[in-house]
Amino acid sequence: MAEKQRRNDSIAYATARDPGQPDAWTAESQGRGSQRLTEVSEVAPPQEVATALAMTPDEKAVVRRRAVLLNDDVIELADSYYPLSVARGTALAEKRKIKGGAPTLLASLGYRATRLVEDVELREAHEAECAALALPAGSNVLTLLRATAGEDGTPYEVQFMVMKAPRRLHYEIEVD
Fold first, then answer.
1. Which domain holds residue 61?
2. Which residues does 81 contact at the CB level (< 8 Å), separation at least 6?
């Protein structure tokens, strides 16, 4: 049987890493990728995110905004949102990198992913996205909204990513 590959696997981005392992992106990019943390703050999340987190319109969330790089080029803008009840008083609310990535910290706090829901959309990039991703005006981007929930079904993290649009998407699903 062929060796299992974890490339482009959403599950790897939502589960804890073993002690001493790098975050999923650093591992997948084989050391050619990195992330630059650009902001950590309490915000009123966009409606789509608030809905995915089952939040009321007046609730705030902690957002961790990152620029994702490959060979020093920004290829993705990634915002991760957490309810205040999950993030306050933890490293999620601090402007610093988290060893092993957020899923590792979340697992240590008792949040283990049991369900991921993803929505993918192709659309024209906004002006600020073109500037951040070094794209010409009128370019398309791919967006991914990923909600991660635990055993009780309550979402505890929503990620919104804006990526340079690929020419092709590839999915691989293992069936037991």
1. 36-94+112-164
2. 45, 49, 53, 61, 62, 63, 157, 158, 159, 160
